[in-house]
């Protein structure tokens, strides 16, 4: 009998990822096609992931040129790389421990990068930021994993609980489970554009009482276009007043705020270059730190805030490089040594991710040779997503039994699908949720992969599918055609109501959804100023 | 009062890293020099780290060219990159989810890379390797951290214990502490060339009884030139017989073997290209897996083995890219799903590290354009280290109160220093260990940073300093001159015995050390066949 005959309870608690199951099946089907297995399609289209580059959205040339130059400084001779790229590379190489190479002397990150991030935050918020409070990590998941170690386990006999929005990306929930903490869900209301509601937070706190030791509140802002909060058809941006309410709530309940503020490169660009950051129609991005500092004492010097950002999303979309940071605000200075020790024990973050992070917080400036291309590429990626939103809404509009919330911006569509009782029964017989069954069949029949809303933690009886919008035009068109074909066939097999909302067992939170939801105007899908 | 007013017990248990403290001081001193503070030196030399490139050892051109090409495929047009680099880039890009870019679809690593690693292991060991048992990670620390989650916590009221060699790199001990596991030390004997001794393993097991739930045995082989086992002046390579003894021991005691087999690029090269792997004089590297399979049943299908490798060490030395893998052998297949789930929850490893890993396990072959340069660069880096060993031993030979074990190979010297009672008292008054005091003074007085043996877990009363040998000639010469100046001044202040061994409170394990230790011949410091 093997020694490890039972997996630790901790690992068992990590939910199985539908995303992983679907990805594995995508790989299998691709292999089957290569082996000559007959399928009604030549190619699998995977529009389930939150990885912008997986669907051929182009990486930003400046980022890649700087990385190539840092790795292979021979490129600095001659004019293979533009002058400002060469200059950036020289500056970054000057920060290395070795000469012209890359080493991992400083486990908390490149010193200069800490300062650049701190400058970026100061510019964004109009509030000072201390480079010593910035820790650089292998992306946002690594940042959360490490942070959670500070207070999980906590010595209490009860598990540590963290208030967590649903629906949301499962990565954070995986991280909580992997650290032995408990997800205490608070539900975002579809009919309110997935905004955080104070009464729902209070309700969630009550559910936690006696079951766990509630220590932190996880918030995601903006709710787009990060895949951290993938319910992107709404793509909620929190207002400053709402943020202040949440901060007061956290102070009353004595909760640490873990803010997932993966401000995407659009916004970073705008923040950096124009000192303003409009992304949604009439919506101004406000960081939790800025709101906190505006509130003044006692909040501004009392509420503990960890704000996390990463290079994975937006037009930069460098998921594969792994880069992120966390800024700690109001953490007890006496713990600094221990926090530093913890982050150091995790080893330094990938230097390639760190370099990309440097470009993200300090992009090319007007007048520099790379500025026009850099901004054009961002605009072009943005345009591609906007066109895909239009295309997608156009097709969804033509399909019965599908509705959605108006899109404010982002990288995903998240339409709601209505299933007939027959379809629900059919799924149940297979031990599947209806949306999972729908996505699995879509993948088998049409070679098209979307993510079921189930993965993101939907309330029972409410079903969504998540469609990645960051795809090249031809891929998107083909995907929508396949969706249309499948959906109409599916409805012939399982005729459904014209509008969702008549689902069985609706949750009280979303019971009124059907009354406010409807078909949006495909011509004004985004609030971005383009 | 802040909510997080006390750090979790788990983080508290992570030991403070002398390496980090020294690095911070190095950075401070460098800043002081820049600010015009007068010092008796113009430049700080940091020879404390295990990062080969930090001391200007050159990165391998082929690795960097492949990385640059993958990041910026425009370089594939024209002849900026050699033909085999371009071909490798094309192959790797073909493995991406996106076209010509990099995304993180497969959280367990690039599929092709899993196969390449599996091929490499099969060639090395002459035993089949299943790609599905290979998990790619952000370096070896990440691999250990994730693995430990499988059995820590274990549901037992006792903490999970792991048998861990001392002295050894503190990274693994940090990982254990960060996961809430307990280090159960077994001491490597200096006078036996730091070899693992069965009687010492049995002694360590007895110390653990009743204190913890012993689950695993951590072994490091070869003991060089990884910084995982940094006692590199001995640089022990385990014999196949010794490995089999250890495997039998693990089977009897029902322990999972976690083998740190960071086979460096020399050996990988030799393994890959020549199917042989001599590194020490008369020493043949044998992997734990190979030994295990040779033993046959019941061992070969029973003993659970996790073997870890990384790109950080040897002439590749790509610490900053973060790349490593673990192969799991004999783990219960029923747990595969959970293990996969766990590694997936950690997110994919840095793709740049994965690409470098690909080159490490499948380097340029004879006849390919890059082969001559690749092998020359490795030989040159190797020669530089060998010359540094000669230089270092030459200087150490001239210094009183210093001895060492014969060097078999590697990246560090680890001489033992004899301190007088006066020096010990002086250190105690400052709350420091004598070797820590020595290194701190060396840094302040001479701007030279070495790592005290204390950091690596030495027994009480035995003091060492660790000197990185992977440095450019000029840096090494300058460092040795500074060491000489300091050491002679130090001995004037604190006169010591000519030979160490007369230390107070010697540990029984090493009490006989002085009788077998002596000055080695600087002309035959390494067993490498050069």
Automatic annotation (TrEMBL), chains A, B:
Annotated protein name in UniProt: alanine transaminase
Assembly information from the UniProt record: Homodimer.
Family indicated by similarity: Belongs to the class-I pyridoxal-phosphate-dependent aminotransferase family. Alanine aminotransferase subfamily.
Sequence segments annotated as region (Disordered): 497-530
Keyword annotations of the record: Aminotransferase, Pyridoxal phosphate, Transferase
Pfam families, alphabetized: Aminotran_1_2
Catalytic activity: L-alanine + 2-oxoglutarate = pyruvate + L-glutamate
InterPro entries: ALAT1/2-like, Aminotransferase_I/II_large, PyrdxlP-dep_Trfase, PyrdxlP-dep_Trfase_major, PyrdxlP-dep_Trfase_small
SUPFAM superfamilies xref list: PLP-dependent transferases
Gene3D superfamilies: 1.10.287.1970, Aspartate Aminotransferase, domain 1 (3.90.1150.10), Type I PLP-dependent aspartate aminotransferase-like (Major domain) (3.40.640.10)
Metabolic or biological pathway: Amino-acid degradation; L-alanine degradation via transaminase pathway; pyruvate from L-alanine: step 1/1
UniProt keyword Zinc-finger, yes or no: no
Domain called Aminotransferase class I/classII large: residue spans: 88-483
Biased composition (Polar residues): 502-515
The protein's required cofactors: pyridoxal 5'-phosphate
EC number: 2.6.1.2
MF annotations from Gene Ontology: L-alanine:2-oxoglutarate aminotransferase activity; pyridoxal phosphate binding
Organism: Electrophorus voltai
């Amino acid at each position: 009998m093997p020694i490890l005959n039972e997996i630790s309870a901790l690992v068992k608690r990590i939910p199985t990822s539908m995303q992983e199951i679907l990805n594995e099946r995508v790989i299998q089907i691709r292999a089957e096609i290569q082996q000559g297995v007959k399928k009604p399609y030549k190619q699998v289209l995977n529009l389930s992931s939150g990885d912008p580059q997986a669907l051929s959205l182009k990486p930003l040339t400046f980022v890649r040129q700087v990385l190539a130059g840092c790795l292979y400084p021979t490129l600095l001779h001659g004019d293979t790389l533009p002058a400002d790229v060469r200059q950036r590379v020289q500056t970054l190489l000057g920060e290395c421990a070795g000469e012209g190479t890359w080493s991992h002397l400083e486990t908390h990150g490149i010193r200069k990068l800490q300062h650049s991030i701190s400058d970026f935050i100061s510019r964004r918020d109009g509030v000072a930021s201390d480079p010593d409070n910035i820790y650089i990590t292998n992306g946002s998941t690594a940042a959360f994993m490490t942070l959670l170690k500070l207070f999980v386990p906590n010595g209490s006999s009860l598990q540590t609980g963290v208030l967590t929005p649903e629906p949301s990306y499962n990565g954070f929930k995986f991280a909580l489970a992997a650290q032995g903490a408990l997800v205490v869900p608070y539900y975002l209301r579809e009919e309110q554009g997935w905004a955080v509601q104070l009464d729902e937070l209070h309700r969630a706190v009550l559910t936690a009482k006696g079951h766990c030791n509630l220590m932190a509140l996880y918030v995601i802002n903006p709710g787009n276009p990060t895949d951290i909060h993938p319910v992107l058809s709404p793509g909620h941006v929190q207002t400053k007043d709402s943020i202040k309410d949440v901060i007061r709530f956290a102070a009353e309940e004595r909760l640490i705020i873990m803010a997932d503020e993966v401000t995407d490169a659009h916004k970073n660009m705008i923040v950096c270059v124009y000192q303003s950051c409009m992304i949604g129609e009439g919506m101004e991005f406000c960081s939790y730190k800025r709101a906190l500092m505006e509130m003044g004492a006692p909040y501004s010097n009392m509420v503990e805030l960890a704000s996390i950002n990463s290079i994975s999303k937006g037009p930069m979309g460098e998921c594969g490089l792994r880069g992120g940071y966390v800024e700690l605000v109001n953490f007890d200075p006496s713990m600094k040594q221990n926090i530093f020790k913890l982050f150091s024990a995790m080893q330094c973050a990938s230097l390639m991710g760190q370099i990309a992070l440097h470009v993200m917080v300090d992009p090319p400036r007007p007048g520099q040779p790379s500025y026009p291309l850099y901004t054009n590429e961002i605009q072009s990626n943005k345009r591609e997503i906007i066109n895909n939103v239009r295309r997608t809404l156009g097709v969804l509009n033509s399909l019965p039994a599908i509705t959605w919330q108006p899109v404010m911006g982002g990288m995903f569509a998240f339409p709601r699908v209505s299933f007939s009782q027959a379809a629900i029964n059919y799924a149940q017989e297979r031990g599947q949720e209806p949306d999972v069954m729908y996505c699995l069949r879509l993948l088998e029949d049409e070679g098209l992969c979307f993510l079921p809303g189930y993965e993101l933690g939907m309330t029972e009886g409410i079903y969504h599918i998540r469609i990645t919008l960051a795809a090249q035009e031809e891929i998107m068109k083909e995907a929508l055609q396949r969706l249309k074909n499948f959906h109409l066939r599916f409805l012939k097999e399982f005729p459904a109501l014209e509008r969702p909302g008549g689902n069985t067992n609706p949750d009280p939170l979303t019971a009124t959804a059907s009354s406010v939801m409807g078909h949006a105007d495909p011509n004004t899908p985004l609030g971005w100023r383009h």
